[in-house]
Design goal:
Strand 2 and strand 3 form a beta hairpin. This protein is 43% helix and 18% strand. It is elongated and about 50 Å long. It has 195 residues and is an alpha/beta fold. The chain is built from 6 helices and 7 strands; from the N terminus they run E-H-H-E-E-H-H-E-H-E-H-E-E. It has a 4-stranded mixed beta sheet with strand order 1-5-7-6. The chain has a 3-stranded mixed beta sheet with strand order 2-3-4, with helices on both faces.
């Protein structure tokens, strides 16, 4: 097997967009039932979840004395909160670790007010969109190696968001497949010839 590393943020990548088959994002091991928005969570309910989360995030920004514009919306059948502004890198953290933690806190805030779990997606400073492009390049690179050498390629451990992005790209390409292995926080993707 070949190990492949994810490029650092300062390494240049091509500007190609992820494939159209890649949805907004989410956790990689969702079942079909989990992917479809529940009947109880209509568009209005989802927007309400994004409003609750936006209020929570706004409170955090005030406490931290950070400036940022907050947009709440519904995209891909899930509530989304986007924070845009300067000086927000500390809210992202190394490889998005702080962002993932803030997203979980925002989901808890939604749960506390609604009593229902949320699939809320939080993005700060466009980190997730940029990361999605980086991961698409990593996935295409792994696919090329698998097709060239006919051997499986193991990627480094990734978050659920990152694995979902890679799975979406790999699954849109004929002749290869991907699967996750391991246990959090060391769960990784293996890209291999389609069996």
């Amino acid at each position: 097997m070949t190990d492949t590393s994810i490029p650092r943020a300062d390494q240049p990548l091509d500007d190609e967009e992820p494939t159209a088959a890649a949805p907004a994002d989410g956790e990689p091991e969702e079942t079909d039932a989990e992917k479809a928005p529940s009947k109880a969570a209509g568009e209005g309910d989802l927007f309400r979840q994004s409003e609750i989360a936006a209020d929570y995030v706004e409170g955090l920004l005030d406490i931290l004395d950070y400036d940022g514009d907050i947009d709440e919306l519904v995209s891909g059948g899930r509530p989304v909160v986007e924070v845009v502004g300067g000086r927000l890198q500390n809210l992202v953290g190394q490889r998005g670790a702080t962002l993932e933690a803030l997203q979980e806190l925002a989901r808890l805030a939604v749960f506390r007010q609604t009593g229902s779990p949320s699939r809320l997606l939080l993005d700060v400073g466009g980190y997730r969109a940029n990361r999605r492009k980086e991961l698409a390049a990593v996935a295409r690179n792994a696919v090329e190696k698998v097709k060239e050498h006919g051997e499986a390629v193991r990627l480094e451990p990734m978050s659920a968001f990152e694995r979902k992005c890679v799975h979406d790209v790999v699954n849109a390409i004929d002749g290869v497949e991907s699967e996750s292995e391991g246990v959090e926080p060391n769960r990784r993707i293996v890209v291999q010839p389609a069996g």
